[in-house]
Amino acid sequence: MTLGNIENRERFLSNIRDKIGGLSADKPVQKPNWSTQPQYRVLKDQNQDQLIKVLKDQCKHIHTDFYHTDEQHLDETLNEIFEEYGVRSIVYTCDSRFQDHKVDTSLKQSGLDTWEWDDNEKEASIQFSEKADVGITFSDITLAESGTVVLFNGQGKGRSVSLLPQNYIAIIPKSTIVKRMTQATEKIHKQVENGEDISSCINFITGPSNSADIEMNLIVGVHGPIRAAYVVVDDI
Amino acid sequence: MKVSLFITCLGDVFYVNAGKSAVELLEHLGCEVDFPETQTCCGQPAYNSGYHRETKEVAKHMIEVMEDADYVVGISGSCVYMIHEYMHLFEEDSKWRDRAIALKEKSYELTQFIVDVLNIEDVGASYQAIATYHTSCHMTRLLGVQEAPFKLLEKVKGLELVDLPNRQDCCGFGGTFAVKMSNISEQMVDEKVDHIEETKANLLLGADGSCLMNIGGRISRRDKQVEVKHIAEILNSRGDR
Amino acid sequence: MPMQIGEKEFKQRVTKGLDDNFMRGAVRSAQGRLQNNRASAADELGDWEDWRTLGKEIRQHTIEHLDYYLHQLSEKVAELGGNVFFAETAEEANEYVKNVVKSKNAKKIAKSKSMVTEEISMNEALEELGCDVVETDLGEYILQMDDHDPPSHIVAPALHKNKEQIRDVFRDKLGYEKTEKPEELALFAREKLREEFLSAEVGITGCNFAVAESGSFALVTNEGNARMVTTLPETQITVMGMERIVPGWEELDIVVSLLTRAAVGQKLTSYITALTGPKQSEEGDGPEEFHLVIVDNGRSKILGTEFQEALHCIRCAACINVCPVYRHVGGHAYGSIYPGPIGAVLSPLLSDYDEYKDLPYASSLCGACTEVCPVKIPLHEQLIAHRRNIIEEDKKGSLAEKVAMKGFGQMAGSANLYQMATKMAPILSTPFSSKNQIRKGLGPLKHWTESRDFPKPANESFRSWFKQRNKRGVQHDVRKH
Q1: Phi/psi at B116 (nearest 5 deg)?
Q2: Domains along chain A?
Q3: CA distance C429 to chain A (A)
Q4: Does the B122-235 domain belong in CATH 3.40.50?
Q5: Which residue, A71, C307, C308, C471, has fewest beta-carbon neighbours within 10 Å?
Q6: Nearest CA in chain C to A37
């Protein structure tokens, strides 16, 4: 990869250094021991089933439909949602989990217009997503406290899939559920520490898009999806 | 217990009954009250206006005046808070800073002193009225006295205490703010008077003369039938007297 | 000054605000809602004070080592193939962005909400190039359509407008034909803006927090427009105030949790989007090219001063949402794109006292702002510090006030003079009072009595009562404990 340019840095930083009496920028700064760490107390000692309950309750606050099923009944549940949302066209990410859990077969057999995201067909993929009734992704990490699905977008997993369609469905393997954002950022921090590449676009998605810009009235559905559904799947 | 009363400017000149009541109340509760005569204003008007050199002179004077007191008890949360702030005026003068800290540590607002130091909640008062209580900002947020006035008022026989809507809102006094930004201040105090009216109380109580002067002044201008009293006056009312 | 908005005179702006009943109604109801949401989100955590403490520690540490973390950030961004430009002034920042836009030959630019680009007037600079710059945050879009009405709030920029006014703007400027229902208005904007997103060549975002350890940028939104801006255009430019940075992801967790709760009472907003570099070569959507502009524009003047904590601000607007002065005068009265308590602290620092000497006085010092600040900035104390600077360093106090305060210092610092003054009070005020109230005051009291009565001094002061009482040897009713 070509390195990017850095312009005007030395003058800018030495001005700051003069003001705060900072050390040389090359010498690593040690983070202090924080006097308190309340983030680890949130939902402490809650097991996976209790966290599902927390997630379910939170869905009420974030205008998100909640479903709980198992691998065997996943296609039934999805069809139920398609019917409810009046879905005729579907875009989903190119993610092996769709094959692993036979979701792609059932989508293709559904008789609906389907499109698997294709990085090599960027324009066509965006155009399909833009008109699609629903976008479906798997959740990579799921935050019970806030009702958030975390998506590591990347190869095959287009950013547009969870953004452009009218509706959004997140398939949530039970094992991806953690307490809160703390556990997700900890994982990403470890990746960084180990020198691994992190996803170029990590989305923390909490329900459908909304706005309160008009008289602070909450309007659900602004630029992104207007409705959202979470499907928690046991055993995967 | 020996208590030196800190009367404050408004208490000395305008709300004389509040000061008298505080003396009688403290004596009733077993304290010996003295009044260091050379005490002056706490200096807050100058401090909040940015005149910190002038404030320092006032602070030094007050520190000297109150130096021998066992406890300093003031009848205004805001002025007591100003005394607590003195230490910040002497960041570079450790001698005065230490004396300021010593004063801070023995200075209390009246209700705070009764509840936290004397450990008394029932002062044996009785008063017939429907009242609401204004929580003044400096006393509540900065001095941190939140519960004491309510604990004391709850025990006053005959007194029905009604919650004041939006009680956390400032009444718009703010010292020179009321004069410098009088049109904004007017809107704030009007809102406060509206809320007081909503409670249907016939008595407004508070522990800060300045807020009471502000709200009372607006109540009077709008010809509302709400009496305004300092909390000490109610706590010193006893059926047997 | 680019961040300056509205009429020149503070007094005129205040009067205009106080006279605007539409605006005041809108602000009052918004404040009520936001205050409740924030309070219940804070209560729900149970240990909000610990969260605030941690937030403060993180911000303090970061700003104390800002040179280190900005260096680390820029290294990481460059490693990922992004370009970094450090801009000391607004002009330098705008020049750089203009050059990027020119090199792309871009005609349409989609922007997500960013206060720093407002601060440096980036839109105007880009419009000089003949570009079509589209604000895509719903509130910002409404303002842009309304002939660039300035924002009045840092989180909800169109807070001062009600839905009827918004309907009229859409009708007059965009041919909107439906009602003032917020849902219909929003749907209309969604359709209009979709076209813009799909055709924009450059996307510009602000930055809630940069993450130094990985060269990432977190954008905190609800609408999804920032995602659009960073998904569809080929080129992305992110503009950040130099203090908007955290050391790592673990700290990002804390500041984001504080921000969303303090700003809108949400556990997390609908979208927290963390972007790291341009898209990878094997990916389909996302920007091919990424530019980061780090802006100083007066911030470094604040470092190392007693106001350094103002740079801890995470722009949640909680202080604005509880401020009673803001409630009555609205955001435009502050004359700065940063209104409310934080605006009154920050605006004179980023600009100067000539421009903003009135703002530190636009507060009753009630301390509500300090109480809610999620990173514990002592806002009301900073306002007092400004006042002290204005008086002692800048010598901008009025002569009358100076004389009065000198006199006050001498009087209150001397027992004799003070006692004389308290004795004089009833005598001096007698001619102006009726019954127990003064209805028409003189001097500084004139402003007071324009709207309030002033009490008449008691005939006998407390101190003389106390003296007399002791002389009479009143039996002290002392109950023994």
Answers
A1: -85, -35
A2: 44-234 (3.40.50.10420)
A3: 48
A4: yes
A5: C471
A6: C54
